[in-house]
Design a protein that fits this description.
- There is one protein chain.
- The protein is mainly alpha-helical.
- It has one domain (3-139).
- 72% of the residues lie in helices and 0% in strands.
- The chain contains six helices and no strands.
- It has helices at residues 8-29, 35-43, 50-71, 83-99, 104-113, 117-139.
- Helix 2 (35-43) crosses helix 3 (50-71) and helix 5 (104-113) crosses helix 6 (117-139).
- The two termini are 13 Å apart.
Amino acid sequence: MTIANFTPWSALAGGAILGAAAALTWWGLGRIAGISNIFGRLLRFEWGHMGWRLAFVAGLVVVGIVAKLAFGERIAFELNAGAWQMVLAGLLVGYGTQLGNGCTSGHGVCGMGRLSPRSIVATLCFMATGAVAVFALRQGGLL
């Protein structure tokens, strides 16, 4: 990313929307808006609170479609990874969300917003691991 591609206003707006959604889910339903938990309970067919979970996941899909229709190619991105890398990344993320009792959105947005010590530590671990991985991959010539 170059400085010319830096878009602070859209990033700020997106962060505000995420924060508002997390706050509304917490205040309105008393639930944490972590997608791994929401989606995971849908896959396990846990019937309690199924309606809001379906609405939350459907909202993610609908907003993506609406954004594509509204902005077209302006939200396009380039992914320099093969199919095996994507599968491996997905498996590692899934394993990590189970190991860490939640995903980055659950801990980083919702947990830190509630000042949860466990989520603060988890988020620091996510960030440190990501920084080390990028550094190692760039030094190794893989990125």
